[in-house]
Every structure is written in C-alpha cells, then in structure tokens.
Amino acid sequence: MDLTTTYMGLKLKNPIIAGASPLTASIESIKKLESAGVAAVVLHSIFEEQINHETHELDHFLFKGSEDYAEALGFFPEVTLSNLESEHYLEEIIELKKSVNIPIIASLNGVSKGGWIEYAKKLEEAGVDAIELNITYIPTDINLDARDLEQMYIDALETVKENVNIPIAVKMNAIFSAPANMAKRFSDAGAQGLVLFDRPVHVDIDLENLNSLQVINPSTSKDLSETLRWSAILYKKLDVSLCASTGVNTHEDILKAMMSGADAVQMVTSLIQNGPNHIESVLKNLVEWMEEKEYISIEQMKGSISLHHTSNPAAYQRANYMRILTDYRF
Ligand SMILES: Cc1cc2nc3c(=O)[nH]c(=O)nc-3n(C[C@H](O)[C@H](O)[C@H](O)COP(=O)(O)O)c2cc1C
C-alpha cells in the first residue's frame, strides 16, 4: 500500500504528523514516535515572549495598555525541550536532527514583529525542515478592527518569510470571518502549508475559588467537523498544502481528512491518551480499510469528497442546513 504523501514539498512516508505538544518536546519522546511510524513531528512551540524575554526586546505593539498581558505570561506550559531557553533549544534541535530521520518542523508561536522573527533564521540554521507559525491573538480590545488584526497576521508571516528559505506553514484558527479568504491571503503572502485548525485553550470558571481558568480540552473525532469543511472548501483552490488538525484521533478520521482534501494530518490528543504506539495501530487499520475498499494509495483518495468533487456539495454549505434542523426528531 502506498501511504506516501507530500506536505509543503516534504516527502512523508505516511500522512501522520505528531502535532506540537509535550510529546514533541524531548528527543527521547520523538524517537519513540519515529519508531511507532510517525512521518514527521512539529516540535512543541517556542513562544515569542520566551525568546523576547531572553533578549529583553519584548515587542508590545499589540499589547500596549493591555491589562491581561502580565497575567498571560503565567500561562506558559511547562515543557522539557531544555525548557525552551532559546540557545539551548537550538542545540537540542541540532542533536535531534542527528538522532532521527523524519522531517522536523519547528513551531513558532507569537503575534508581533519582534525579535522572534530573527529566531526563525536560527531555527533554519539549526536544520529544521520547515517552520509552523502559530499566530494566535485574542483581540480583547473592542477598538481593534478585524482588518488591522488580519493584516497583523499577514505582516508576521511576511516578515518570517523574508528571513528564511525553508517552507512555512500557518496554523490557522477557525474563527476568522472569512477563513477561505484568510487562507488565500496566507497563501499569497508565501505560506506553503495551512494547518486547519489550531485548538484554542478553553476558558472555564472555577466555582470553588471564584476565578477564571484556562484548561486544555482533549479533542474527540467529533471535533473534526470544521477541519473537514474548510479542507473540502479549500481543496484545489490554492497552491498550498493542507494539513488537517483537531479531532484526528482514528484511522477513520485520517481517511475523512484525506478525502476532504488534506495532504497530511496532525495528531495530538490521541497520542497523549494512547501513547506513541497508537500510530502503529492507526496505520494498520488504515491499510486494512484501504485494502478492503481496493485503494492502492493515499494520493488516490485525496480530495475525492471535497467541494470540488462531491455529489453532495450542500453538506459543506448552507443549502442543507435548514432541512437538517427542521427534520430533526427526538
Ligand atoms: C498538552 C498540549 C500542548 C500543546 N502545545 C502546543 C504548542 O506548544 N503549540 C501549538 O501550536 N499547539 C499546541 N497544542 C495544540 C495541538 O498541537 C493541536 O493543535 C490540538 O491539540 C488539536 O489537535 P488534537 O485534536 O489532535 O489534539 C497543544 C495541545 C495539547 C493538548
């Protein structure tokens, strides 16, 4: 069975990428993922604030006056890839590249045009095969216009792009007013890959301590819906690779992602819950399903049920929406 695929020009032996998480924050853990069959990894993010704190160049251009910022600094996850002290982190990447054969995608997580962009160059020099940008900004300022915010995303991408030659993916969030247009703008600004989608840390309220909380909410296959929708809509519309992320937990989710038009998938929750060996069983089930249905390759199924090809385009659009809601019986 030919499971190979190409993501941003990177040849992958199968579509499974381990997404940014604590699982991709140590060389030992990444080696286990490789042994279990993963095709590539996205390293745990290095955050703009961490880089800039070290260089004392914190760029506040979006945060000026924000009361939330100091608090937000308290929310960094604890990670082990040298606790992301940036110089040490680069040394570990060099070591990692010697230890594994799969492509390594670094993850830069930030919002401004500050010193973290310089760091992209250093990541390239350290030998990463690509960079994934996670530009997540929560616009709490009611005067911040959507166009300005979107332009900030594009500016950050363009600035990184100007500084490196390796492929860049943007890990998008699904809450833009016009995700397809944002995807086009990212593509026009030079992104070779789009990760659909980031999963925001959830907000909750602690009723004992009467305080607000940020919590990680593990995904299930039911969370795949928006990823399928936008992958299906974007397939063949842009010259970018698409990577399905959020809710890809089983071999069936991978099949659906490929059929909607994705070139690869990222898995996190299911690997944290089941361990790296989950990849082996997912790949086994994937091959069994494909053999049973007489597929010979992953390429063959890519985009086969996208908006471009489907016999039921309404499923991806508004058309069916009223009927589904009004026909529902309980
Ligand atoms: C514990 C944990 C840590 C994560 N750390 C990062 C990170 O450093 N950078 C990032 O872009 N995404 C991070 N994510 C988000 C994942 O990469 C992924 O986008 C999200 O979990 C959705 O995929 P899933 O449904 O397979 O879990 C993290 C997720 C979890 C659960």
Report what the structure shows:
It is globular and about 55 Å long. The protein has a single domain, classed as TIM Barrel, CATH 3.20.20.70. The chain has 330 residues and is of the alpha/beta class. The protein contains 13 helices and 13 strands. The strands form three sheets. An eight-stranded parallel β-barrel has the order 3-4-6-7-8-9-12-13, surrounded by six helices. A two-stranded antiparallel sheet has the order 1-2. It has helices at 27-36, 48-55, 68-72, 86-99, 116-126, 146-163, 179-188, 225-234, 251-260, 269-274, 278-292, 298-301, 321-327, and strands at residues 5-7, 10-12, 16-18, 40-42, 46-47, 104-109, 130-134, 168-172, 193-196, 202-206, 211-215, 241-244, 264-267. The chain binds flavin mononucleotide. The site of flavin mononucleotide has 23 residues, from β6. Flavin mononucleotide is lined by residues 19-22, 44-45, 77, 107, 109, 134, 171, 198-199, 216, 219, 223, 245-248, 267-269.
Number of helices: 13
Beta-strand content bin: 15-25%
Order of helices and strands: EEEHEEHHHEHEHEHEEEHEHEHHHH
Low-confidence stretches: 55-83
What CATH architecture label applies? Alpha-Beta Barrel
Task: Note the topology.
Blueprint: E1 5-7, E2 10-12, E3 16-18, H1 27-36, E4 40-42, E5 46-47, H2 48-55, H3 68-72, H4 86-99, E6 104-109, H5 116-126, E7 130-134, H6 146-163, E8 168-172, H7 179-188, E9 193-196, E10 202-206, E11 211-215, H8 225-234, E12 241-244, H9 251-260, E13 264-267, H10 269-274, H11 278-292, H12 298-301, H13 321-327
Parallel strand pairs: 3-4, 3-13, 4-6, 5-6, 6-7, 7-8, 8-9, 9-12, 12-13
Antiparallel strand pairs: 1-2, 10-11
Helix pairs in contact: 4-5, 5-6, 8-9, 9-11
The structure holds flavin mononucleotide.
Flavin mononucleotide is lined by residues 19-22, 44-45, 77, 107, 109, 134, 171, 198-199, 216, 219, 223, 245-248, 267-269.
